[in-house]
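Pasting as-is:
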Amino acid sequence: MSGSGKSSLVFETIAAESQRMINETYSAFVQGFMPTLARPDVDVLRGLTTAIIVDQERMGANVRSTVGTVTDANAFLRILFSRLGQPHIGGPQAFSFNIPSVRGSGTITIERGGRTVRPADDGERRHYGGSVAIEHGAGRTEVRTFTLAGGMCPRCEGMGSVSDVDLTQLYDETKSLAEGAITIPGYTADGWSTRMFSESGFFDPHKPIRDYSKTELHDFLYKDPVKVRINGINLTYEGLVPKVQKSFLSKDVDAMQPHIRAFVERVATFSACPDCGGTRLSEGARSSKIKGISIADACAMQISDLADWLRGLAEPSVAPLVATLQHDLDAFVEIGLGYLSLDRPSGTLSGGEAQRTRMIRHVGSSLTDVTYVFDEPTIGLHAHDVEQMNALLRRLRDKGNTVLVVEHDPAVIRVADHVVDMGPRAGPHGGTIVYEGTVDGLIASGTATGRYLDVRLTLKSETRTRRGSIPIRNARLHNLRDVSVDVPIGVLVAVTGVAGSGKSSLIHGCLPRTDPSVTVIDQSAIRGSRRSNPATYTGILDPIRKAFASANGVNASLFSANSEGACPACNGLGKTYTDLGFMATVVSVCEVCEGRRFTDDVLHYRLRGRNIVEVLAMPVEEARDFFTERPVRVMLDRLADVGLGYVSLGQALDTLSGGERQRLKLAIEMSGTTEVYVLDEPTTGLHMQDVDNLIGLLDRLVEAGRTVIVIEHNLDVVARADWVIDLGPGGGHDGGRVIFEGPPAELLRTAGSLTGEHLRRRLETIAGS
């Protein structure tokens, strides 16, 4: 069941202990730079092997990261173009948008161990940088630090986009520096950031900026880095605009704190770099081609097309290199990601896409006796792609590895060698192993999972009649091919198709533009602070605080971790964050409140025997039995209806999965006047029983006169829909067409529909057969 303890067992016990024990093998010095991992609450763990976690965490906030860079496919392509590209422009680094272009002269050789060795080929030049010898002829050799020329576009510095800065958002020209003219977050009149300007000696700190001369204003905004001495300390002064570009504009906006993100959105507008056309590469790197294709062209190709192009390279000198790259690209296609391109920013991948992209690294790995831990790897996959995923999981197992998969998909459960079923319910009613053994034994066990595996899928006996339709005409967004379709209203509509077939482009991209009254509830991150949780997001924390205040005769602000009751050591966060500059920020539990977020005094006040920390730790289902206050109870009932009964009231929003975030938004929207709901894979992360409950909720919304449009792969949802719009037949440029529109029963008879094929198979399947 969802929330029954699967992740606690697999990730927070087995994988966590493996990681902790591996960390202990490092020296004390190295461990000092690593996060301190607590010992899991377990008595005995035997037979533990090295665990590799492949989870759904979205790929980091580095805007330079692409699908190609995170899988090493870019590295292989760079070597390939350095060997075969014409005109020949240098080693692999010449094709990297992360290495600046540096001018140099003379013949470059690499110095090793006190003697100078000339590189044998371009592959040798990957060891760029460091101490090198430059031969100037006539026997004269100069040894100095040198960096080989990279392929970074000098205009956008390898970002692919340029930003225009609104100077009025950086400073108030009517004020002086001493009066706090700089309006950038973190810049206070007496802080170091502002003192760098006011005490640099370039300006009068008491002079309003509007009175600056042209030279002073240029130095204030654009001056190149220069050494200055402030209070006896040597520092580097730099103009305000380049400082803002490096500190704010070169980072992922969605990873920023809300007030920083709001500043960036006010101050900057982004557009494709006019010099490189968004490819991130220098003119030289773009000019070198293989059979008319540049590395920028190759990275922009759909991966399935790039794999086909590689097969046409019959150059014996690079055959092993091409074979390795071909293997990785074919793995993308097998895993259902053939519609992506290598230049796709990794931060734009969904959680499921990110997990499968990480998986590429392991498919060809030579490691054995490893425990691979996957977190619902079939999320976002069509039933056709789930079969391919199962084959990859088996391949990892057959290499001599253990594969632990936290999963709800019946197709994955059926191919398992061993099943551990957690339950019997969620939250405090779960945490127990209710069955362990073979799949056949699970079906006969009578557990919730076993019962649903033994149920034959059936189509809805009668479909509802539409009340009208929302027309979409000649849609061409992304891969859509001049699509025209009428989306029925007053019914439950399922939009289906393999990953990348154009479902989201059609519904998210075109439907809202056609009908602005449509409410889209997707899996995107909920923009909030580190303090946000379901209680704050849904608004029920206020009546909870008032109930505590009334019961104890004190101020309600005591029960807010953002106000009077907050732990002073961590400011109510429960954690402390140590910024290490260019290194990853270190997060640790607050030693004063031990993660509780509140002062000890607040914990003495109780409501019906529970303090505020204990209440916020309650799962929704438990809180429903605890609270009698109507505003709280109504929202808790909605949260339970959308399948979030296991989520605790105080759980940080940034720890929720995409599916959980979407269902949380749905619970809030249910109280509004929305006529048309658009949901994107709402069954993500749900057990089969919870899926059944969610379909019941969607049916009730339709019966109440609403329209529900669901982008979904789950065949249970498709079978119980009133109308199906199936896109395909494949992903990327192989999709973008409407294959079928009509009731599910007619989909079964549609040739060329992978959805219809798998729905037909599922209807014919008795679980376990």
